């Protein structure tokens, strides 16, 4: 009995291949952060990930598919907005997470890649990331409106109003984006929404 237990380790779905894929995606993120999307070299991934070249080519025969999947995997956390029941706090935390992501080398690469738009699949991935972020914001704002935390508001406009200053502060690189910045931005925007709603 003990022999049978010892001999058959639990097999997880994906198992080794899932681990190898995760290593390759992590290495891709690091290389893209270091060299940018344009300078990313497909050949370096296997060495950086500590896997055989065939593992890279078998999973991602196309270089751009690999970059796109790495972009999407990395950016998943940037596209979420918590729901604690306190819209002000949730938006502040969202801005801090957004700024934190943008301040990483990979986040800076993402920001730069949005401008030149040379590779169609990569651009589609970046658009998808932004769309996910907008959709998450819309869901959270709609919930706040349903609960009476906010008056009816255009969630896309609200998202632009609060995230615009983050992009400005982080991209200028003159100072770090702080919780106080996030608190002030969210406070001013939400106060403006409440004030304009009461005059309608």
UniProtKB/TrEMBL annotation:
One of its GO terms (molecular function) is transcription cis-regulatory region binding. Keywords: DNA-binding, Transcription, Transcription regulation. Residues 18-78 form the HTH tetR-type domain. The keyword DNA-binding applies. InterPro entries: Homeodomain-like_sf, HTH-type_TetR-like_transc_reg, HTH_TetR, Tet_transcr_reg_TetR-rel_C_sf, TetR_C. SUPFAM superfamilies: Homeodomain-like, Tetracyclin repressor-like, C-terminal domain. The keyword DNA-binding applies. Residues 41-60 bind DNA. This is TetR/AcrR family transcriptional regulator. It comes from Streptomyces spongiae.
């Amino acid at each position: 009995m003990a022999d049978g237990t010892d001999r058959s380790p639990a097999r997880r779905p994906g198992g080794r291949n899932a681990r190898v894929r995760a290593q390759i995606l992590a290495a891709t993120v690091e290389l893209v952060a270091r060299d940018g999307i344009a300078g990313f070299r497909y050949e370096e991934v296997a060495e950086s990930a500590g896997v055989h070249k065939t593992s890279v080519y078998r999973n991602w025969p196309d270089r751009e598919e690999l970059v796109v999947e790495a972009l999407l995997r990395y950016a998943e956390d940037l596209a979420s907005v918590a729901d604690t029941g306190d819209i002000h706090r949730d938006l502040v935390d969202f801005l801090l997470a957004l700024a934190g992501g943008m301040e990483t080398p990979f986040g800076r690469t993402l920001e730069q890649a949005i401008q030149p738009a040379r590779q169609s699949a990569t651009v589609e991935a970046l658009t998808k990331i932004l769309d996910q972020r907008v959709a998450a914001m819309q869901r959270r704002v709609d919930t706040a409106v349903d609960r009476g935390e906010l008056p009816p508001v255009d969630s896309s406009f609200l998202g632009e109003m609060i995230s615009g200053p983050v992009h400005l502060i982080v991209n200028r690189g003159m100072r770090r984006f702080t919780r106080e910045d996030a608190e002030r931005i969210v406070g001013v925007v939400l106060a403006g929404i409440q004030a304009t709603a009461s005059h309608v």
